[in-house]
Amino acid sequence: MLAPRGHVEWGGTDPQVNWVGGFEAASGCKVNYLPFAYDPAVDQSETLDPDAFDVIAGPPDLAGRLVAEQRVAEIDTDRVEGYQDIPKRLREAAGGHGVPYLWEKNVLLYDSSKVRPREAEAMYADAGPVFVRDTPLSIADAALRQGVEHPFALTAEQLDAAVGLLEKEAERVYWRDPLQVVTGFAAGSARFGQGTPYLLDVLDRAGRPVRAVAEARVTGQVDSWQVSAEAAHPECAYQWLSWVTSAEVQRKAVAWTGMAPANAEVCEAAPKDVEPAVRERAERVCGLYGVGTSRAFKGVSFADYPAKDCPGRDGECTDYAQWVDRWKQLVD
User: Fold this and answer.
1) The whole model's pTM is what?
2) Where does the pLDDT of residue 312 fall: very low under 50, low under 70, confident under 90, or very high at 90 and above?
3) What's the CA gap between 102 and 259, in Å, rounded?
Protein backbone atom coordinates (compact mmCIF):
# COMPACT_ATOMS: atom_id res chain seq x y z
CA MET A 1 0.00 0.00 0.00
CA LEU A 2 1.42 3.36 -1.09
CA ALA A 3 -0.04 6.65 0.14
CA PRO A 4 0.99 10.06 1.46
CA ARG A 5 1.65 10.37 5.17
CA GLY A 6 -1.58 10.92 7.06
CA HIS A 7 -3.74 9.07 4.54
CA VAL A 8 -3.10 5.75 6.28
CA GLU A 9 -2.72 5.58 10.05
CA TRP A 10 -1.99 2.45 12.05
CA GLY A 11 -1.33 3.94 15.48
CA GLY A 12 2.37 4.47 14.85
CA THR A 13 2.18 8.28 14.86
CA ASP A 14 -0.47 8.47 17.58
CA PRO A 15 -1.81 5.33 19.31
CA GLN A 16 -5.30 6.86 19.23
CA VAL A 17 -5.22 7.36 15.44
CA ASN A 18 -5.63 3.98 13.80
CA TRP A 19 -7.90 2.79 11.03
CA VAL A 20 -5.63 0.01 9.81
CA GLY A 21 -5.95 -2.26 12.84
CA GLY A 22 -9.72 -2.52 12.52
CA PHE A 23 -9.41 -3.34 8.83
CA GLU A 24 -6.92 -6.14 9.44
CA ALA A 25 -9.12 -7.62 12.17
CA ALA A 26 -12.30 -7.44 10.07
CA SER A 27 -10.84 -8.60 6.76
CA GLY A 28 -8.03 -10.95 7.66
CA CYS A 29 -5.79 -8.98 5.27
CA LYS A 30 -2.37 -7.75 6.30
CA VAL A 31 -1.45 -4.14 5.49
CA ASN A 32 2.10 -3.30 4.47
CA TYR A 33 2.00 0.49 4.29
CA LEU A 34 4.81 2.46 2.66
CA PRO A 35 4.58 6.27 2.94
CA PHE A 36 4.92 7.73 -0.54
CA ALA A 37 5.31 11.35 -1.63
CA TYR A 38 4.86 11.80 -5.35
CA ASP A 39 7.48 13.98 -7.03
CA PRO A 40 7.17 14.37 -10.81
CA ALA A 41 10.72 15.71 -11.03
CA VAL A 42 12.18 12.46 -9.69
CA ASP A 43 12.28 9.05 -11.34
CA GLN A 44 9.95 6.96 -9.17
CA SER A 45 9.12 4.38 -11.83
CA GLU A 46 10.49 1.48 -9.78
CA THR A 47 8.31 2.34 -6.79
CA LEU A 48 5.31 2.76 -9.08
CA ASP A 49 5.82 -0.56 -10.84
CA PRO A 50 2.42 -2.34 -10.87
CA ASP A 51 4.06 -5.39 -9.27
CA ALA A 52 5.22 -3.27 -6.31
CA PHE A 53 1.83 -2.38 -4.82
CA ASP A 54 -1.80 -3.44 -4.57
CA VAL A 55 -3.40 -0.06 -3.85
CA ILE A 56 -2.14 3.50 -4.01
CA ALA A 57 -3.51 6.89 -2.99
CA GLY A 58 -2.38 10.29 -4.09
CA PRO A 59 -3.06 13.57 -5.88
CA PRO A 60 -4.73 13.86 -9.29
CA ASP A 61 -1.55 14.27 -11.32
CA LEU A 62 -0.17 11.02 -9.91
CA ALA A 63 -3.50 9.30 -10.57
CA GLY A 64 -3.56 10.60 -14.14
CA ARG A 65 -0.03 9.48 -14.79
CA LEU A 66 -0.75 5.96 -13.50
CA VAL A 67 -3.76 5.73 -15.81
CA ALA A 68 -1.84 7.07 -18.81
CA GLU A 69 0.95 4.56 -18.22
CA GLN A 70 -1.56 1.71 -17.64
CA ARG A 71 -0.18 0.99 -14.18
CA VAL A 72 -3.64 0.86 -12.55
CA ALA A 73 -6.85 -0.97 -13.38
CA GLU A 74 -10.32 0.38 -13.99
CA ILE A 75 -12.37 0.24 -10.81
CA ASP A 76 -15.17 -2.29 -10.55
CA THR A 77 -17.44 0.07 -8.64
CA ASP A 78 -19.91 -2.71 -7.80
CA ARG A 79 -17.26 -4.10 -5.47
CA VAL A 80 -16.84 -0.82 -3.55
CA GLU A 81 -19.46 -0.37 -0.84
CA GLY A 82 -20.82 3.17 -0.73
CA TYR A 83 -19.28 4.23 -4.05
CA GLN A 84 -22.59 5.40 -5.54
CA ASP A 85 -23.22 7.55 -2.46
CA ILE A 86 -20.13 9.66 -3.21
CA PRO A 87 -21.11 12.97 -4.88
CA LYS A 88 -21.00 12.85 -8.67
CA ARG A 89 -18.57 15.80 -8.88
CA LEU A 90 -15.99 13.86 -6.90
CA ARG A 91 -16.55 10.62 -8.81
CA GLU A 92 -16.08 12.49 -12.09
CA ALA A 93 -12.91 14.16 -10.80
CA ALA A 94 -11.40 10.82 -9.76
CA GLY A 95 -12.38 9.16 -13.04
CA GLY A 96 -13.05 5.51 -13.75
CA HIS A 97 -9.73 4.36 -12.29
CA GLY A 98 -10.09 5.92 -8.85
CA VAL A 99 -12.27 5.97 -5.74
CA PRO A 100 -12.48 9.45 -4.16
CA TYR A 101 -11.12 9.61 -0.63
CA LEU A 102 -10.37 13.16 0.53
CA TRP A 103 -10.59 16.52 -1.22
CA GLU A 104 -9.68 20.14 -0.73
CA LYS A 105 -9.85 23.47 -2.49
CA ASN A 106 -7.16 26.09 -2.77
CA VAL A 107 -7.55 29.58 -1.39
CA LEU A 108 -5.11 32.47 -1.47
CA LEU A 109 -4.09 33.53 2.02
CA TYR A 110 -2.51 36.85 2.96
CA ASP A 111 -1.23 38.58 6.07
CA SER A 112 -3.64 41.48 6.54
CA SER A 113 -1.11 43.34 8.71
CA LYS A 114 1.22 43.56 5.70
CA VAL A 115 -0.97 43.63 2.58
CA ARG A 116 -4.60 44.29 1.69
CA PRO A 117 -5.12 42.94 -1.82
CA ARG A 118 -8.30 43.65 -3.72
CA GLU A 119 -7.77 40.72 -6.04
CA ALA A 120 -5.71 37.53 -6.17
CA GLU A 121 -3.48 38.79 -8.97
CA ALA A 122 -1.75 41.01 -6.40
CA MET A 123 0.31 38.02 -5.22
CA TYR A 124 2.16 37.88 -8.54
CA ALA A 125 3.38 41.47 -8.29
CA ASP A 126 4.26 41.24 -4.61
CA ALA A 127 7.84 41.32 -3.36
CA GLY A 128 7.14 38.27 -1.21
CA PRO A 129 7.74 35.96 0.43
CA VAL A 130 4.92 34.17 -1.42
CA PHE A 131 4.32 30.55 -0.44
CA VAL A 132 3.37 28.41 -3.45
CA ARG A 133 2.38 24.75 -3.41
CA ASP A 134 5.20 22.82 -5.05
CA THR A 135 3.36 21.04 -7.84
CA PRO A 136 3.06 21.68 -11.58
CA LEU A 137 -0.69 21.90 -11.03
CA SER A 138 -0.14 25.29 -9.36
CA ILE A 139 0.21 26.61 -12.91
CA ALA A 140 -3.56 26.17 -13.20
CA ASP A 141 -4.16 28.69 -10.40
CA ALA A 142 -2.32 31.34 -12.40
CA ALA A 143 -4.25 30.40 -15.56
CA LEU A 144 -7.55 30.62 -13.72
CA ARG A 145 -6.72 34.12 -12.52
CA GLN A 146 -6.05 35.08 -16.13
CA GLY A 147 -9.62 34.14 -17.00
CA VAL A 148 -8.93 30.74 -18.59
CA GLU A 149 -12.12 28.67 -18.63
CA HIS A 150 -10.43 25.27 -18.34
CA PRO A 151 -7.30 25.81 -16.21
CA PHE A 152 -6.04 22.22 -16.52
CA ALA A 153 -6.37 22.16 -20.32
CA LEU A 154 -4.02 24.87 -21.56
CA THR A 155 -2.80 25.70 -25.03
CA ALA A 156 0.90 26.49 -25.44
CA GLU A 157 0.07 30.19 -25.41
CA GLN A 158 -1.98 29.90 -22.22
CA LEU A 159 0.75 27.85 -20.54
CA ASP A 160 3.34 30.50 -21.43
CA ALA A 161 1.11 33.23 -20.03
CA ALA A 162 0.45 31.39 -16.76
CA VAL A 163 4.11 30.57 -16.20
CA GLY A 164 4.99 34.15 -17.07
CA LEU A 165 2.71 35.32 -14.28
CA LEU A 166 4.38 32.98 -11.79
CA GLU A 167 7.81 34.21 -12.85
CA LYS A 168 6.90 37.73 -11.68
CA GLU A 169 6.90 36.74 -8.02
CA ALA A 170 10.10 38.12 -6.53
CA GLU A 171 10.54 35.72 -3.61
CA ARG A 172 8.81 32.36 -3.71
CA VAL A 173 8.83 29.58 -1.14
CA TYR A 174 7.72 26.28 -2.61
CA TRP A 175 5.98 24.11 -0.06
CA ARG A 176 4.94 20.48 0.09
CA ASP A 177 4.10 20.20 3.76
CA PRO A 178 1.14 22.38 4.84
CA LEU A 179 2.99 23.00 8.09
CA GLN A 180 5.37 25.21 6.10
CA VAL A 181 2.46 27.55 5.30
CA VAL A 182 1.29 27.66 8.91
CA THR A 183 4.83 28.29 10.15
CA GLY A 184 5.42 30.98 7.52
CA PHE A 185 2.37 32.99 8.51
CA ALA A 186 2.74 32.29 12.24
CA ALA A 187 6.31 33.58 12.17
CA GLY A 188 5.25 36.65 10.21
CA SER A 189 7.48 35.90 7.22
CA ALA A 190 4.79 35.06 4.64
CA ARG A 191 2.87 37.82 2.89
CA PHE A 192 0.86 35.62 0.53
CA GLY A 193 0.44 31.87 0.38
CA GLN A 194 -1.56 29.16 -1.34
CA GLY A 195 -3.53 27.36 1.31
CA THR A 196 -6.82 25.72 2.15
CA PRO A 197 -9.85 26.61 4.28
CA TYR A 198 -8.47 24.34 6.99
CA LEU A 199 -5.10 26.12 7.11
CA LEU A 200 -6.89 29.46 7.27
CA ASP A 201 -8.91 28.18 10.22
CA VAL A 202 -5.79 26.95 12.02
CA LEU A 203 -4.15 30.36 11.66
CA ASP A 204 -7.31 32.22 12.62
CA ARG A 205 -7.73 30.18 15.81
CA ALA A 206 -4.07 30.91 16.59
CA GLY A 207 -4.87 34.62 16.44
CA ARG A 208 -2.83 35.38 13.34
CA PRO A 209 -4.05 38.25 11.08
CA VAL A 210 -4.45 35.97 8.06
CA ARG A 211 -7.35 36.29 5.62
CA ALA A 212 -8.35 34.72 2.30
CA VAL A 213 -8.90 36.63 -0.94
CA ALA A 214 -12.49 36.27 -2.12
CA GLU A 215 -12.48 34.55 -5.53
CA ALA A 216 -15.40 33.40 -7.63
CA ARG A 217 -13.40 30.47 -8.98
CA VAL A 218 -10.69 28.38 -7.36
CA THR A 219 -8.92 25.12 -8.05
CA GLY A 220 -9.29 21.95 -6.02
CA GLN A 221 -8.03 18.42 -5.91
CA VAL A 222 -9.41 15.00 -5.11
CA ASP A 223 -7.05 12.42 -3.64
CA SER A 224 -8.24 8.98 -4.71
CA TRP A 225 -7.43 5.31 -4.20
CA GLN A 226 -6.44 3.16 -7.17
CA VAL A 227 -5.82 -0.54 -7.68
CA SER A 228 -2.67 -1.81 -9.39
CA ALA A 229 -3.07 -3.36 -12.81
CA GLU A 230 -1.02 -6.27 -11.45
CA ALA A 231 -2.41 -6.41 -7.92
CA ALA A 232 -1.25 -9.57 -6.16
CA HIS A 233 -4.08 -9.33 -3.61
CA PRO A 234 -7.11 -7.90 -5.45
CA GLU A 235 -9.64 -9.18 -2.92
CA CYS A 236 -7.90 -7.38 -0.06
CA ALA A 237 -7.48 -4.34 -2.29
CA TYR A 238 -11.23 -4.04 -2.85
CA GLN A 239 -11.99 -4.69 0.80
CA TRP A 240 -9.68 -1.78 1.60
CA LEU A 241 -11.47 0.50 -0.89
CA SER A 242 -14.79 -0.25 0.80
CA TRP A 243 -13.22 0.26 4.22
CA VAL A 244 -11.80 3.70 3.47
CA THR A 245 -15.03 4.79 1.76
CA SER A 246 -17.00 4.27 4.97
CA ALA A 247 -18.03 7.26 7.07
CA GLU A 248 -16.37 5.74 10.13
CA VAL A 249 -12.92 5.68 8.55
CA GLN A 250 -13.23 8.93 6.63
CA ARG A 251 -14.31 10.73 9.79
CA LYS A 252 -10.99 9.72 11.37
CA ALA A 253 -9.04 10.68 8.24
CA VAL A 254 -10.75 14.08 8.05
CA ALA A 255 -10.05 14.79 11.71
CA TRP A 256 -6.41 13.85 11.21
CA THR A 257 -5.65 15.57 7.88
CA GLY A 258 -8.00 18.57 7.75
CA MET A 259 -9.12 17.55 4.25
CA ALA A 260 -12.81 17.18 3.38
CA PRO A 261 -14.44 13.74 3.09
CA ALA A 262 -15.68 12.17 -0.12
CA ASN A 263 -18.41 10.51 1.95
CA ALA A 264 -20.75 13.32 3.03
CA GLU A 265 -22.26 11.04 5.68
CA VAL A 266 -19.23 11.98 7.77
CA CYS A 267 -20.81 15.40 8.23
CA GLU A 268 -24.12 14.11 9.53
CA ALA A 269 -24.74 13.39 13.21
CA ALA A 270 -21.95 11.10 14.39
CA PRO A 271 -22.68 7.92 16.37
CA LYS A 272 -22.42 8.27 20.14
CA ASP A 273 -19.38 5.99 20.32
CA VAL A 274 -17.25 8.35 18.20
CA GLU A 275 -14.45 9.93 20.20
CA PRO A 276 -15.46 13.55 21.06
CA ALA A 277 -12.21 15.03 19.73
CA VAL A 278 -12.61 13.22 16.41
CA ARG A 279 -16.25 14.29 16.17
CA GLU A 280 -15.42 17.92 16.91
CA ARG A 281 -12.54 18.15 14.44
CA ALA A 282 -14.46 16.40 11.66
CA GLU A 283 -17.49 18.65 12.18
CA ARG A 284 -15.25 21.71 11.99
CA VAL A 285 -13.70 20.59 8.70
CA CYS A 286 -17.13 19.75 7.29
CA GLY A 287 -18.29 23.26 8.10
CA LEU A 288 -15.21 24.88 6.57
CA TYR A 289 -15.83 23.09 3.26
CA GLY A 290 -19.61 23.23 3.34
CA VAL A 291 -19.78 19.46 2.84
CA GLY A 292 -23.29 18.33 2.01
CA THR A 293 -24.41 21.84 1.04
CA SER A 294 -24.74 23.67 -2.28
CA ARG A 295 -21.60 25.72 -1.56
CA ALA A 296 -19.28 22.69 -1.24
CA PHE A 297 -18.20 22.60 -4.89
CA LYS A 298 -19.34 26.05 -5.98
CA GLY A 299 -16.74 27.69 -8.20
CA VAL A 300 -14.27 24.81 -7.80
CA SER A 301 -12.36 23.52 -10.83
CA PHE A 302 -11.04 20.14 -9.74
CA ALA A 303 -7.62 19.18 -11.01
CA ASP A 304 -7.36 16.97 -14.06
CA TYR A 305 -4.34 15.38 -15.72
CA PRO A 306 -3.09 17.76 -18.44
CA ALA A 307 -3.10 15.98 -21.80
CA LYS A 308 -2.66 16.96 -25.45
CA ASP A 309 -5.92 15.30 -26.39
CA CYS A 310 -8.20 17.68 -24.50
CA PRO A 311 -11.94 18.08 -25.19
CA GLY A 312 -12.88 20.64 -27.82
CA ARG A 313 -9.29 21.67 -28.63
CA ASP A 314 -8.40 19.16 -31.40
CA GLY A 315 -5.27 18.02 -29.57
CA GLU A 316 -3.93 21.55 -29.17
CA CYS A 317 -3.37 21.38 -25.41
CA THR A 318 -0.08 21.03 -23.60
CA ASP A 319 0.54 17.75 -21.80
CA TYR A 320 1.70 16.97 -18.29
CA ALA A 321 5.33 16.50 -19.35
CA GLN A 322 5.36 20.09 -20.61
CA TRP A 323 3.86 21.32 -17.33
CA VAL A 324 6.50 19.42 -15.36
CA ASP A 325 9.29 20.82 -17.51
CA ARG A 326 8.09 24.41 -17.09
CA TRP A 327 7.61 23.89 -13.36
CA LYS A 328 11.14 22.52 -12.93
CA GLN A 329 12.48 25.64 -14.64
CA LEU A 330 10.53 27.81 -12.19
CA VAL A 331 11.59 25.93 -9.07
CA ASP A 332 15.23 25.60 -10.13
Assistant:
1) 0.95
2) low
3) 6
